């Protein structure tokens, strides 16, 4: 039987077009450029965001099941799914569950790893971000905003912070919106430091709703507002992880690993 490989890039999604262009689309474009002979498809796991775009812009973005069905119709027989998720949490598991219905349709299915899924990934990302946020004033601290999850994979956020601190970057902290460690945890530690300024940046692929509103928003409960009330000058950096070329290369490396599984067939 003829074999035709296809790549499915799976993202959570975003309704913020500017950050989408710089992150999700940039990753997809670099994947297609790296493997020009393999068709690249996209899927988003957030049904809420997909419905919002369909309603507001008319754009129809498939979910994982819809994208796989399309790939099968186009004659794809071997699929590699590369998520742009940060951790192997709920969204990644949802993706894998959706794929289960297609195991009898494709000859082979392989998965690339999320961004932070091995110890070496943590070390690489810590190095990339530490190099990108160098502050000569010893009183300047950086807090990275992760999403957070009820999934056990949430422990990755604490592990990443440990990587920063072991590498000598004690002024870089990791907190999450929906889990632990929280912003309150970091603020408690800052009380013992001579802090002159706090920088905030998203530890998320896109600088979307969480970054724009929960981190840098003007509402009283935004991280910027909370820290300002604590007396800290705050600077927000609205740059998603997908904007870093080195981060995009990590996804390409994870995809290459998954493609090598098929090549070994």
Give your account of this protein's structure.
- The chain is α/β, with parallel strands linked by helices and 265 residues long.
- The protein has eleven helices and eight strands.
- The protein has helices at residues 17-22, 24-34, 47-56, 64-73, 90-99, 119-132, 155-166, 183-190, 209-215, 223-229, 245-263, and strands at 5-11, 40-44, 78-83, 108-111, 140-146, 172-176, 197-202, 234-236.
- The strands form two sheets. It has a four-stranded parallel beta sheet with strand order 2-1-3-4, with helices on both faces. Strands 6-5-7-8 form a four-stranded parallel beta sheet.
- Helix 6 (119-132) crosses helix 7.
- The mean pLDDT is 95.
Number of DSSP strand runs: 8
- Proportion of beta-strand residues: 15-25%
Counting DSSP H or I runs of 4 or more residues, the number of helices is 11
Work out the radius of gyration.
19 Å
Series of H and E elements: EHHEHHEHEHEHEHEHHEH
End-to-end span in angstroms? 13 Å
What keywords describe this structure?
alpha/beta; 11 helices; four-stranded parallel sheet
SSE blueprint and pairings:
Layout: E1 5-11, H1 17-22, H2 24-34, E2 40-44, H3 47-56, H4 64-73, E3 78-83, H5 90-99, E4 108-111, H6 119-132, E5 140-146, H7 155-166, E6 172-176, H8 183-190, E7 197-202, H9 209-215, H10 223-229, E8 234-236, H11 245-263
Parallel strand pairs: 1-2, 1-3, 3-4, 5-6, 5-7, 7-8
């Amino acid at each position: 039987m003829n074999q035709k490989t296809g790549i499915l890039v799976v993202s959570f999604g975003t309704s913020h077009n500017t950050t989408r262009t710089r992150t999700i689309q940039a990753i997809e474009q670099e994947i297609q450029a790296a493997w020009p002979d393999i068709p690249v498809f996209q899927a988003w796991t957030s049904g809420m965001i997909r419905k919002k775009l369909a309603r507001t812009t008319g754009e129809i973005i498939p979910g994982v099941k819809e994208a796989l069905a399309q790939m099968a119709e186009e004659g794809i027989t071997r699929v590699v799914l590369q998520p742009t998720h940060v951790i192997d949490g709920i969204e990644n598991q949802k993706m894998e569950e959706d794929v289960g219905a297609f195991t009898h349709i494709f000859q082979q299915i392989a998965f690339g790893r999320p961004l932070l899924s091995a110890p070496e990934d943590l070390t690489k990302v810590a190095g990339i971000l530490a190099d990108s946020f160098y502050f000569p004033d010893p009183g300047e601290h950086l807090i990275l905003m992760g999403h957070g999850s009820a999934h056990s994979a949430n422990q990755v956020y604490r592990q990443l912070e440990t990587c920063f601190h072991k590498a000598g970057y004690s002024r870089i902290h990791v907190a999450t919106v929906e889990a632990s460690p929280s912003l309150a945890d970091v603020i408690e530690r800052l009380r013992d430091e001579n802090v002159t300024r706090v920088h905030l940046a998203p530890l998320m692929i896109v600088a979307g709703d969480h970054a724009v509103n929960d981190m840098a928003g003007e509402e009283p409960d935004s991280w910027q507002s909370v820290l300002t009330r604590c007396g800290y000058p705050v600077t927000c950096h609205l740059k998603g992880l997908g904007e870093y070329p080195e981060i995009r290369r990590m996804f390409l490396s994870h995809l290459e690993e998954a493609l090598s599984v098929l090549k070994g067939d």
